[in-house]
Task: structure prediction
Amino acid sequence: MIIVLKQGTSQKEIDQLSETISKMASVVINPVIGTDLTILGLIGDTSRLDPTQIESYHCVDRIMHVAEPYKKANRSFHPDNTVVRVGDALVGGRKLAMIAGPCSVESREQITEIALAVRESGASILRGGAFKPRTSPYAFQGLKYEGLELLKEARAASGLPIVTEIMSPYDIDRFLDDVDCIQVGARNMQNFDLLRQLGKISKPVLLKRGLSATIEEWLMSAEYIMAGGNEQVILCERGIRTFETYTRNTVDISAVPVVKKLSHLPVLVDPSHGTGKRWMVSPMTRAAVAVGADGIMIEVHNDPQHALCDGQQSITPSAFDEIMKDIRLIAQAVGREV
Ligand code: PEP
Ligand code: MN
Result:
Protein backbone atom coordinates (compact mmCIF):
# COMPACT_ATOMS: atom_id res chain seq x y z
CA MET A 1 0.00 0.00 0.00
CA ILE A 2 1.24 3.47 -0.85
CA ILE A 3 0.01 6.50 1.08
CA VAL A 4 0.47 9.81 -0.68
CA LEU A 5 0.64 12.71 1.78
CA LYS A 6 -0.42 16.30 1.18
CA GLN A 7 2.19 18.96 0.51
CA GLY A 8 3.48 20.56 3.67
CA THR A 9 2.83 17.58 5.93
CA SER A 10 4.96 17.93 9.05
CA GLN A 11 7.17 15.25 10.58
CA LYS A 12 4.88 15.25 13.62
CA GLU A 13 1.89 14.35 11.43
CA ILE A 14 3.91 11.59 9.73
CA ASP A 15 4.85 10.19 13.14
CA GLN A 16 1.23 10.24 14.37
CA LEU A 17 -0.01 8.48 11.25
CA SER A 18 2.81 5.93 11.41
CA GLU A 19 1.91 5.18 15.01
CA THR A 20 -1.75 4.55 14.10
CA ILE A 21 -0.73 2.28 11.22
CA SER A 22 1.66 0.30 13.43
CA LYS A 23 -1.16 -0.30 15.92
CA MET A 24 -3.40 -1.73 13.17
CA ALA A 25 -0.91 -4.05 11.45
CA SER A 26 2.68 -5.17 11.63
CA VAL A 27 4.01 -3.54 8.49
CA VAL A 28 7.26 -1.81 7.67
CA ILE A 29 6.69 1.87 6.89
CA ASN A 30 9.14 3.40 4.44
CA PRO A 31 8.83 7.20 4.16
CA VAL A 32 10.07 8.81 0.96
CA ILE A 33 10.32 12.56 1.40
CA GLY A 34 10.66 14.53 -1.84
CA THR A 35 10.58 18.22 -2.53
CA ASP A 36 7.01 18.14 -3.90
CA LEU A 37 5.68 14.89 -2.59
CA THR A 38 5.94 12.70 0.50
CA ILE A 39 4.84 9.12 0.34
CA LEU A 40 4.74 6.27 2.82
CA GLY A 41 5.38 2.83 1.34
CA LEU A 42 3.88 0.07 3.48
CA ILE A 43 5.44 -3.38 3.17
CA GLY A 44 3.90 -6.49 4.71
CA ASP A 45 0.42 -7.83 5.30
CA THR A 46 -1.81 -4.76 4.95
CA SER A 47 -5.06 -6.76 5.05
CA ARG A 48 -5.78 -5.59 8.61
CA LEU A 49 -5.44 -1.93 7.70
CA ASP A 50 -8.64 0.02 7.25
CA PRO A 51 -7.96 2.39 4.32
CA THR A 52 -10.89 4.63 5.24
CA GLN A 53 -9.40 5.18 8.69
CA ILE A 54 -6.05 6.15 7.13
CA GLU A 55 -7.81 8.42 4.65
CA SER A 56 -9.52 10.23 7.50
CA TYR A 57 -6.16 11.77 8.50
CA HIS A 58 -5.99 15.34 7.20
CA CYS A 59 -2.44 14.88 5.93
CA VAL A 60 -3.42 11.98 3.62
CA ASP A 61 -4.03 12.91 0.00
CA ARG A 62 -4.79 9.44 -1.35
CA ILE A 63 -4.07 5.75 -0.99
CA MET A 64 -2.86 3.45 -3.73
CA HIS A 65 -3.23 -0.29 -3.42
CA VAL A 66 -0.46 -2.37 -4.90
CA ALA A 67 -1.75 -5.73 -3.62
CA GLU A 68 -5.24 -7.21 -3.42
CA PRO A 69 -7.00 -6.99 -0.05
CA TYR A 70 -7.72 -10.73 -0.02
CA LYS A 71 -4.90 -13.05 0.97
CA LYS A 72 -6.16 -16.60 1.44
CA ALA A 73 -8.17 -16.49 -1.79
CA ASN A 74 -5.25 -14.90 -3.66
CA ARG A 75 -3.36 -16.89 -6.28
CA SER A 76 -0.15 -14.99 -5.50
CA PHE A 77 0.14 -16.82 -2.19
CA HIS A 78 -1.23 -20.13 -3.49
CA PRO A 79 -0.19 -20.67 -7.11
CA ASP A 80 -1.77 -24.13 -7.52
CA ASN A 81 -5.46 -24.58 -8.31
CA THR A 82 -7.55 -25.60 -5.34
CA VAL A 83 -9.60 -28.73 -5.85
CA VAL A 84 -12.64 -29.04 -3.58
CA ARG A 85 -14.10 -32.45 -2.82
CA VAL A 86 -17.90 -32.63 -2.67
CA GLY A 87 -18.82 -36.20 -1.74
CA ASP A 88 -17.13 -38.26 -4.44
CA ALA A 89 -16.99 -35.38 -6.89
CA LEU A 90 -13.99 -33.10 -7.36
CA VAL A 91 -14.49 -29.46 -8.26
CA GLY A 92 -11.52 -27.72 -9.83
CA GLY A 93 -9.76 -30.72 -11.32
CA ARG A 94 -9.39 -31.74 -14.97
CA LYS A 95 -12.91 -33.15 -15.02
CA LEU A 96 -15.66 -30.53 -15.18
CA ALA A 97 -18.05 -30.48 -12.22
CA MET A 98 -21.55 -30.66 -13.66
CA ILE A 99 -24.17 -29.67 -11.11
CA ALA A 100 -27.75 -30.24 -12.19
CA GLY A 101 -31.19 -30.34 -10.63
CA PRO A 102 -34.35 -28.34 -10.10
CA CYS A 103 -34.53 -24.80 -8.78
CA SER A 104 -36.50 -26.19 -5.84
CA VAL A 105 -37.25 -29.56 -4.41
CA GLU A 106 -40.99 -30.06 -4.92
CA SER A 107 -41.72 -33.71 -4.17
CA ARG A 108 -40.04 -37.08 -3.66
CA GLU A 109 -40.95 -38.20 -7.18
CA GLN A 110 -39.75 -34.96 -8.76
CA ILE A 111 -36.31 -34.78 -7.13
CA THR A 112 -35.60 -38.52 -7.41
CA GLU A 113 -36.65 -38.72 -11.05
CA ILE A 114 -34.46 -35.72 -11.95
CA ALA A 115 -31.53 -37.04 -9.89
CA LEU A 116 -31.57 -40.40 -11.67
CA ALA A 117 -31.91 -38.77 -15.09
CA VAL A 118 -29.07 -36.26 -14.67
CA ARG A 119 -26.82 -38.94 -13.19
CA GLU A 120 -27.40 -41.05 -16.32
CA SER A 121 -26.25 -38.09 -18.41
CA GLY A 122 -23.09 -37.72 -16.34
CA ALA A 123 -23.90 -35.03 -13.77
CA SER A 124 -21.54 -35.10 -10.80
CA ILE A 125 -23.59 -33.24 -8.17
CA LEU A 126 -27.34 -32.84 -7.59
CA ARG A 127 -28.75 -29.39 -6.80
CA GLY A 128 -32.19 -28.49 -5.45
CA GLY A 129 -33.38 -25.64 -3.25
CA ALA A 130 -35.13 -26.45 0.02
CA PHE A 131 -34.98 -22.88 1.37
CA LYS A 132 -35.77 -20.45 -1.43
CA PRO A 133 -34.94 -16.74 -1.37
CA ARG A 134 -37.95 -15.39 -3.30
CA THR A 135 -38.52 -11.76 -4.19
CA SER A 136 -42.20 -12.07 -3.24
CA PRO A 137 -43.22 -13.29 0.20
CA TYR A 138 -46.28 -14.87 -1.47
CA ALA A 139 -44.21 -17.05 -3.83
CA PHE A 140 -43.30 -20.67 -3.04
CA GLN A 141 -40.63 -20.54 -0.35
CA GLY A 142 -39.40 -24.13 -0.59
CA LEU A 143 -40.19 -27.29 1.38
CA LYS A 144 -37.52 -26.34 3.93
CA TYR A 145 -36.53 -29.24 6.26
CA GLU A 146 -38.78 -31.65 4.37
CA GLY A 147 -36.88 -30.61 1.23
CA LEU A 148 -33.59 -31.57 2.89
CA GLU A 149 -35.02 -35.00 3.69
CA LEU A 150 -36.13 -35.48 0.08
CA LEU A 151 -32.70 -34.39 -1.17
CA LYS A 152 -31.11 -37.03 1.06
CA GLU A 153 -33.45 -39.65 -0.37
CA ALA A 154 -32.51 -38.56 -3.90
CA ARG A 155 -28.83 -38.79 -2.94
CA ALA A 156 -29.37 -42.33 -1.65
CA ALA A 157 -31.23 -43.31 -4.82
CA SER A 158 -28.76 -41.75 -7.28
CA GLY A 159 -25.45 -41.79 -5.43
CA LEU A 160 -24.96 -38.10 -6.31
CA PRO A 161 -23.69 -35.70 -3.62
CA ILE A 162 -26.09 -32.82 -2.91
CA VAL A 163 -25.74 -29.05 -2.77
CA THR A 164 -28.46 -26.76 -1.47
CA GLU A 165 -28.80 -23.15 -0.37
CA ILE A 166 -28.65 -22.04 3.24
CA MET A 167 -30.44 -18.85 4.26
CA SER A 168 -29.88 -18.66 7.99
CA PRO A 169 -26.79 -19.26 10.16
CA TYR A 170 -29.14 -21.04 12.60
CA ASP A 171 -29.47 -23.92 10.12
CA ILE A 172 -25.74 -24.66 9.83
CA ASP A 173 -25.77 -27.67 12.18
CA ARG A 174 -28.62 -29.23 10.25
CA PHE A 175 -26.88 -28.60 6.90
CA LEU A 176 -23.64 -30.05 8.28
CA ASP A 177 -25.45 -33.32 8.94
CA ASP A 178 -27.53 -33.38 5.78
CA VAL A 179 -25.71 -32.00 2.75
CA ASP A 180 -22.37 -32.38 0.95
CA CYS A 181 -21.96 -28.75 -0.05
CA ILE A 182 -23.62 -25.61 1.32
CA GLN A 183 -24.67 -22.97 -1.18
CA VAL A 184 -24.65 -19.27 -0.33
CA GLY A 185 -26.99 -17.56 -2.76
CA ALA A 186 -26.39 -14.30 -4.58
CA ARG A 187 -28.61 -12.43 -2.13
CA ASN A 188 -26.55 -13.58 0.83
CA MET A 189 -23.10 -13.08 -0.67
CA GLN A 190 -22.49 -10.25 1.76
CA ASN A 191 -24.31 -11.72 4.75
CA PHE A 192 -21.12 -11.46 6.76
CA ASP A 193 -22.50 -13.20 9.86
CA LEU A 194 -23.44 -16.19 7.75
CA LEU A 195 -20.05 -16.19 5.98
CA ARG A 196 -18.20 -15.98 9.27
CA GLN A 197 -20.12 -18.93 10.69
CA LEU A 198 -19.45 -20.95 7.52
CA GLY A 199 -15.77 -20.20 8.03
CA LYS A 200 -15.82 -22.20 11.25
CA ILE A 201 -17.03 -25.45 9.73
CA SER A 202 -15.41 -28.09 7.61
CA LYS A 203 -17.75 -28.46 4.65
CA PRO A 204 -17.49 -27.10 1.11
CA VAL A 205 -19.26 -23.80 0.48
CA LEU A 206 -20.50 -22.80 -2.98
CA LEU A 207 -20.46 -19.01 -2.99
CA LYS A 208 -22.53 -17.34 -5.68
CA ARG A 209 -21.63 -13.88 -6.92
CA GLY A 210 -23.89 -11.15 -5.58
CA LEU A 211 -26.41 -9.45 -7.86
CA SER A 212 -24.29 -6.33 -8.17
CA ALA A 213 -21.01 -7.46 -6.67
CA THR A 214 -17.66 -6.60 -8.14
CA ILE A 215 -15.17 -9.44 -8.50
CA GLU A 216 -13.16 -7.99 -5.63
CA GLU A 217 -16.20 -7.89 -3.34
CA TRP A 218 -16.98 -11.49 -4.30
CA LEU A 219 -13.42 -12.60 -3.50
CA MET A 220 -13.56 -10.67 -0.22
CA SER A 221 -16.65 -12.70 0.70
CA ALA A 222 -14.70 -15.88 -0.05
CA GLU A 223 -11.97 -14.43 2.17
CA TYR A 224 -14.48 -14.11 5.04
CA ILE A 225 -15.10 -17.87 4.90
CA MET A 226 -11.44 -18.74 4.42
CA ALA A 227 -10.22 -16.41 7.15
CA GLY A 228 -12.15 -18.53 9.64
CA GLY A 229 -10.26 -21.63 8.53
CA ASN A 230 -12.65 -23.18 5.98
CA GLU A 231 -10.72 -23.08 2.72
CA GLN A 232 -13.13 -25.29 0.75
CA VAL A 233 -14.79 -22.53 -1.26
CA ILE A 234 -16.23 -22.87 -4.76
CA LEU A 235 -17.17 -19.68 -6.61
CA CYS A 236 -20.12 -19.44 -8.98
CA GLU A 237 -20.74 -16.67 -11.51
CA ARG A 238 -24.53 -16.41 -11.89
CA GLY A 239 -24.96 -13.21 -13.84
CA ILE A 240 -24.95 -9.63 -12.64
CA ARG A 241 -27.31 -6.67 -12.90
CA THR A 242 -26.61 -4.46 -15.89
CA PHE A 243 -28.69 -2.03 -17.97
CA GLU A 244 -29.67 -4.91 -20.28
CA THR A 245 -33.23 -6.13 -19.79
CA TYR A 246 -33.48 -8.83 -22.45
CA THR A 247 -31.89 -11.39 -20.14
CA ARG A 248 -32.66 -11.83 -16.42
CA ASN A 249 -29.01 -11.02 -15.66
CA THR A 250 -25.88 -10.55 -17.73
CA VAL A 251 -23.56 -13.55 -17.51
CA ASP A 252 -20.17 -12.01 -16.88
CA ILE A 253 -18.25 -14.61 -18.82
CA SER A 254 -15.09 -12.51 -18.48
CA ALA A 255 -15.27 -13.04 -14.71
CA VAL A 256 -14.08 -16.61 -15.25
CA PRO A 257 -10.59 -15.80 -16.58
CA VAL A 258 -10.33 -12.87 -14.16
CA VAL A 259 -11.10 -15.08 -11.15
CA LYS A 260 -8.77 -17.81 -12.44
CA LYS A 261 -6.01 -15.21 -12.66
CA LEU A 262 -6.64 -13.60 -9.27
CA SER A 263 -7.59 -16.67 -7.26
CA HIS A 264 -6.79 -20.36 -6.95
CA LEU A 265 -10.40 -21.23 -6.08
CA PRO A 266 -12.54 -23.17 -8.56
CA VAL A 267 -15.13 -21.13 -10.45
CA LEU A 268 -18.40 -22.34 -11.94
CA VAL A 269 -20.95 -20.67 -14.20
CA ASP A 270 -24.73 -20.83 -13.71
CA PRO A 271 -26.25 -20.04 -17.13
CA SER A 272 -29.79 -20.66 -15.82
CA HIS A 273 -29.95 -17.72 -13.40
CA GLY A 274 -27.44 -15.91 -15.59
CA THR A 275 -29.83 -15.66 -18.53
CA GLY A 276 -33.27 -16.56 -17.16
CA LYS A 277 -34.01 -18.19 -20.51
CA ARG A 278 -34.15 -21.91 -21.24
CA TRP A 279 -32.92 -21.58 -24.82
CA MET A 280 -29.79 -19.72 -23.73
CA VAL A 281 -28.58 -22.35 -21.27
CA SER A 282 -26.88 -24.46 -23.92
CA PRO A 283 -24.94 -21.69 -25.73
CA MET A 284 -23.84 -20.09 -22.46
CA THR A 285 -22.73 -23.46 -21.09
CA ARG A 286 -20.59 -23.95 -24.17
CA ALA A 287 -19.12 -20.47 -23.74
CA ALA A 288 -18.39 -21.09 -20.06
CA VAL A 289 -16.57 -24.34 -20.77
CA ALA A 290 -14.59 -22.71 -23.57
CA VAL A 291 -13.49 -19.84 -21.35
CA GLY A 292 -12.16 -22.17 -18.65
CA ALA A 293 -14.91 -22.60 -16.05
CA ASP A 294 -14.33 -25.52 -13.67
CA GLY A 295 -17.93 -26.60 -13.97
CA ILE A 296 -21.51 -25.57 -14.61
CA MET A 297 -24.64 -25.35 -12.49
CA ILE A 298 -27.83 -25.90 -14.48
CA GLU A 299 -31.48 -25.97 -13.47
CA VAL A 300 -33.09 -29.15 -14.77
CA HIS A 301 -36.78 -29.98 -14.26
CA ASN A 302 -38.80 -32.98 -15.43
CA ASP A 303 -41.84 -30.76 -16.05
CA PRO A 304 -40.57 -27.19 -16.51
CA GLN A 305 -44.00 -25.82 -17.40
CA HIS A 306 -45.32 -26.76 -13.98
CA ALA A 307 -42.19 -25.97 -11.96
CA LEU A 308 -42.93 -24.08 -8.73
CA CYS A 309 -39.90 -21.87 -9.32
CA ASP A 310 -37.84 -20.76 -12.33
CA GLY A 311 -39.58 -22.99 -14.91
CA GLN A 312 -38.79 -20.44 -17.64
CA GLN A 313 -35.08 -21.11 -17.32
CA SER A 314 -35.24 -24.82 -16.51
CA ILE A 315 -34.32 -27.37 -19.13
CA THR A 316 -35.57 -30.95 -19.41
CA PRO A 317 -33.38 -33.95 -18.56
CA SER A 318 -33.12 -34.76 -22.28
CA ALA A 319 -31.94 -31.21 -23.07
CA PHE A 320 -29.36 -31.62 -20.29
CA ASP A 321 -28.24 -34.87 -21.89
CA GLU A 322 -27.75 -33.02 -25.20
CA ILE A 323 -25.65 -30.34 -23.49
CA MET A 324 -23.45 -32.98 -21.86
CA LYS A 325 -22.73 -34.39 -25.31
CA ASP A 326 -22.25 -30.97 -26.91
CA ILE A 327 -19.56 -29.85 -24.50
CA ARG A 328 -17.35 -32.92 -24.83
CA LEU A 329 -15.33 -31.55 -27.75
CA ILE A 330 -15.13 -28.05 -26.31
CA ALA A 331 -13.89 -29.45 -23.00
CA GLN A 332 -11.24 -31.47 -24.82
CA ALA A 333 -10.11 -28.41 -26.76
CA VAL A 334 -9.38 -26.58 -23.51
CA GLY A 335 -7.71 -29.52 -21.79
CA ARG A 336 -10.70 -30.63 -19.73
CA GLU A 337 -13.02 -33.60 -19.72
CA VAL A 338 -16.70 -34.12 -19.04
C1 PEP B 1 -30.31 -20.84 -6.87
O1 PEP B 1 -29.26 -21.30 -7.34
O2 PEP B 1 -31.27 -21.54 -6.53
C2 PEP B 1 -30.46 -19.38 -6.71
C3 PEP B 1 -31.46 -18.85 -5.99
O3 PEP B 1 -29.53 -18.68 -7.34
P1 PEP B 1 -28.98 -17.18 -7.07
O4 PEP B 1 -28.64 -17.11 -5.63
O5 PEP B 1 -27.78 -17.13 -7.97
O6 PEP B 1 -30.07 -16.24 -7.49
MN1 MN C 1 -33.69 -20.85 -9.47
Remarks:
- The chain has a mean pLDDT of 97.
- Residues 83 and 93 are 6 Å apart (CA to CA).
- Residues 317-333 form the longest helix (17 residues).
